[in-house]
Each structure stands twice: as structure tokens, then as C-alpha cells.
Amino acid sequence: MTGAQHTQGRHSADLGEHRPRQILGTCYPESTEEVRQTVVSATRTGIPIFPLSTGRNWGMGSRSPVYDDCSVLDAGRMAAVRTLDLDIGYAVVEPGVTQRQLTQLLDGTPWMLNVTAGCADASIVGNTLERGDGTIRPRIDDLLGLEVVLGTGRVMTTGGLDRNGRRPGAVAGPDLTRAFVQSNLGVITAMAISLIPRPQTTILVHATFTKSSLLEVVDAMIRVGRSRNASDGMLRLKDLFVVPEAGRAAIPATADVDAVTVQVPLLGSRAAVEHTETIIRETFSRVHGLLSYRSLDTAETATDDPLYTRTLFARGIPSCTNVLDGLGVTSCSQVDRARIGRLMFLPVVPFRGTDLGKAIELFEVEAERYGTAGMLEFNVISQHSTNMVTQIPFLRDPSGVERAHELRRAARRSFLRAGFLPYRSDIDHEPWELSDRSADYDDEPLRMLKRLYDPAAIIAPGRFLVSDR
Questions:
Q1: Do strands 81-85 and 385-395 pair parallel, antiparallel, or not at all (unpaired)?
Q2: What is the per-residue pLDDT across 409-434, written as a single tens digit (0 to 9) for each?
Q3: Residue 446 DSSP code
Q4: What are phi and psi of 93, to 5 degrees?
Q5: Judging by beta carbons within 10 Å of its beta carbon (0-12, 13-18, 19+), is residue 24 exposed, middle or buried?
Q6: What is the pLDDT of residues 114-135, one digit of tens each?
Q7: CATH classification of 1-198+434-469 is 3.30.465.10, yes or no?
Q8: Domain with CATH 3.30.465.10 in the chain
Q9: What pairing do the DSSP bridges indicate for beta strands 49-52 and 70-74?
Q10: Where in the chain do CATH 3.40.462.10 domains reside?
Q11: Residue 139: its pLDDT value, please?
């Protein structure tokens, strides 16, 4: 028995309506030592543990483990900001630290957080480990180092982070930090993340186009993406709705199914930002299907502006408004029981016009076949590739649930055949999607790490890496 509090097992509500998992219980450690004791106890009893931060993994399983008969290790009570270095610009946070919590600490400082468009009370650690995308850059680019409890009960640190919460910089030798991203090699108890210098000016460019001009829009977007400055925020093609008639009821009433949006925050000095914005405006103005173009100073956008929430994200301020409005609930505690369910499908697509067009076409074919809608977004994470974020909304009746899951499975198959492989997964597909990356993928080196770091295979079995249990 450890010092962590425990509750008896029960099924968890799940926005994605995945197969219910049998959970044996939940423990709530409040320190690294209590996590270590929990891991040692799990090794002794043979009952695997599934770690989570705040459990807001909506559309991919929420709080549920991959396999049945696990105990959940809920690290949400580990909510200390161990270090906040406002000279160098980094923070060391525990798994329960939320976007809202850290943002409030950064208010009035020279630094801001790379926030996501999800829940303000979602974990920074959990989303980063799942390779979520922030408003400014991929969250993985924020990751500096980790504190990890291994399956042996040993505590290690990576990336130059020490046990006292100091991280002066990367040290000599191999760095295993990325080995713990999307893996089940250990339980993360602290993370060092890089903060973003608060710019003099932040402008949000928001352009809408007719959906019929999509190929021309993508071409213009690629020209912008390959000429922009490194300090610019995440370039996104978004608000692209695929709506067969049978799936229309699950789409928000405000959705414009005949339009598509390109959005990018611009950060820096006013002169530099205005120069970049001029180039983008000239590029987009040459697209025949341009419907509207807005360039918003995010510090001066009115609170009743329809884009106000998006300007908050660009300034490093999280908000739950998009989540609540999209699901028709009044608090994030209601999300998993919302009237509208939601699945996520997340493949990587090369940043090339033909590939983006092919990905959209593939999804349109499957959505029509299963009579279920999709809300598509492409986040440009580099000069070479995009993260495709596909939300599959559905009515939570038996037919709606079945068709949504059939669409998710069919899209996975067709995207794999096209070479568009998953970069994140849900609990129903995690055990296989790592090896699905290629026909000749060799899983054995990762199995060797698993046997070394977690010999009893008691940490998150099935999470991206198939264990030997």
C-alpha cells in the first residue's frame, strides 16, 4: 500500500464512445515518491497502471486505458510549478499543472505559453507527450527535459533537468527525452518546457475562401508557409467541413460548409509583423475565391468579435469557449456526457498541394459512404509536413456511434494505403498504429527499451508500443 489515495474501479464516460474498459481502481499520488511507490506496488502485484494527467484526452479515450483490468494512475493532484525561470524563459511543471494555471503565473511577465485551442484546464504535460499542437508551434518543440519514474522504481531525468527543478541547458551525451514521448516506458512526474518571449505585436490573419477554390487556396497557403518567418505562429487550413446529408445534424449550426479558412498569428516587432502581413494579404488577394480577409491586432480585438477567442490563443491565453460552444455544454466537466459525441482521426500529411488534396478526397469518400460528417484542419508543423486534425462528430444513438467508428476505421485503412500515417491515436487503435507506420517497421529496439525500463511491463500496456504482457 502506498501513500497515494485510491478509489474503487468503475467505467469512465468517454466523448468518443470507445469500447468501455474495465478499470480496477484509481490512485491519486501527490508526489514523485508516491508515484514511485505505486509503480513498485504494481510490479509486485502484477496489476498494470495507466498514467494520466487531467484525463481530457477527448475523442481519443478520455480517462480510459488501452486495455482492460488496469488501475488508473491519476497524477492530476501533482500540480506544482516547480520552477518558473523568467530570466532564461522556462518552467518545470508537474502533470496536473494546467494551461490556465501557468498562464496566470505568466501574466505581466516577458514570457507567454504556447497554448492549444482545447480546454484551459487541460494538462500541459499530457498534451505535450501526446504531440499536441499549440497556437504558435508544435507542443513537442516546447519540450526540454523530463523527470521519469521507470517500471523498476528508479527515478531518472533527461535533457539536462535535475531533481531540484533546475535546467541550465542540455548536457553532453545521448538525450533520451524524446523516447518518453508517446510511449509507455515510464511515468512522467515533471517536465521542463520552453516559454515564448512575449512579442511587441501579435496580429492574427484570418482569411476565408470559397470551398470550390480549395486547390488555389492550398497553393497560396504553401507559398505563404514557405516564405514566413520562424517567429510566426502556426499556419492552419481549418474550418473545412465534410458534410454528407446524414451527418448534418451533428455539425454546429454556425458552420459554413461552403467556405474554408486559413489562419496564422504573426509575432514580433510592429514593423516586422506589418511587413509580413502585407505579403500574406497580397498573396491571398490573388485567390479568386477570397470571401473575407481580416488582420486583427490581438491586443485590441473587441470581446464580442467572433474571432476574439482565437486572438486570445495567439496571445498565449487559453479558453474553453470553443470546446463548450462546439459541444453545446456549459462546463468542461460535462464534455464526456455531451449530446454530441466526437472521435479524432490524426494522420500526418506532407505539405504539398497534391497530398493535401488527396487527403481531403479520401476522407470525403469515406464520410459519404458512412453518412457521417467530419471537421478537417491541417496544421503546418514544418516546411515539409502537416498534422491533419479530423474531428468526427456524431449523435450518440446506436446508429450514429456505429457509423462514426466505422468511418474512423475506414479512414485509417485508406490513409495508410495512401502513405498518410497516424501521428496520434485513440485507445482502440494504439497497440497497432506504431507498427503500421511501414510494412517493414522494426519494433524490437523499442521492445528492448521497454524490457530495460519496465521489465514487468506494468506501465500503460498497449500505449503505442505493444508490450510482452
A1: unpaired
A2: 999 999 999 999 999 999 998 766 66
A3: H
A4: -125, 150
A5: middle
A6: 999 999 999 999 999 999 999 9
A7: yes
A8: 1-198+434-469
A9: parallel
A10: 201-418
A11: 96
